[in-house]
Structure formats: structure tokens, C-alpha cells
Amino acid sequence: MPTVAILGASTDRSKFGNKSVRAHAAKGYTVYPINPKADEVEGVKAYPSLAETPAGTLNRVSVYLPPAVGIKVLPEIAARGCEELWLNPGTESDELIAEAERLGLNVIQACSIVDVGMSPRELP
């Protein structure tokens, strides 16, 4: 079963960080929501940080954080390891992308919800 950590997972169903948890779960992913203020997101145990998830190297990390926050967690992402780092629309910046690539991360700039075959609009 593929794994994904959602950085910026939200308990607010209107937020993309919540829709991503639902979309990935619906498509068979083991989902690790990352939210330091929530115990769970959509019935899935949430973790305060990526380092605290029980998974080994993740298939993907999907980011729903502002670029200024995202760049601060790149070292943690690189230390944890992932096959794909998804920077969803609005999360990327030239500086963040350059640093992610310097750290050897496989950066994909696209909507990870669309990639799993769903549209955010289909997720009320």
C-alpha cells in the first residue's frame, strides 16, 4: 500500500489539506496527516511532525504549507526520506524549490489530489 504524509493536513473540510487526506485515503494510500494542533484528521491519527510518523521512507510527501513554513521543514523531509515531494499550488517558491533540489528531493509541482484521479471540487 503506498504511503503519503500530508503536511498542513487540516480538520477544516473546506481546506485542500483536508481534501488531500480524503482523496489519498479513497485511492488506497496509507495517510499520515501532519498537524501539530490536531489529534486526528478525518478519523485518521494525526502527527505533530513528520519525524513522529511510524512509516519508513514515504512514497510521497504532499505539502499544503505557505512557502516560508515549507522551507523550514525541508531538512526534516530530507532526513525522513520520500520518493516524491509534491508542492501543491501556492506552496512553492523559487527559494523553496532550489533548497529542496539541493537536498536531493524529487520535487513535483502539481496538485497531488488531481494526480490520484480526483478533483478538489468533487470533495465537498
From TrEMBL:
<dbReference type="InterPro" id="IPR036291">
    <property type="entry name" value="NAD(P)-bd_dom_sf"/>
</dbReference>
<protein>
    <recommendedName>
        <fullName>CoA-binding domain-containing protein</fullName>
    </recommendedName>
</protein>
<dbReference type="Pfam" id="PF13380">
    <property type="entry name" value="CoA_binding_2"/>
</dbReference>
<feature type="domain" description="CoA-binding">
    <location>
        <begin position="1"/>
        <end position="91"/>
    </location>
</feature>
<dbReference type="InterPro" id="IPR003781">
    <property type="entry name" value="CoA-bd"/>
</dbReference>
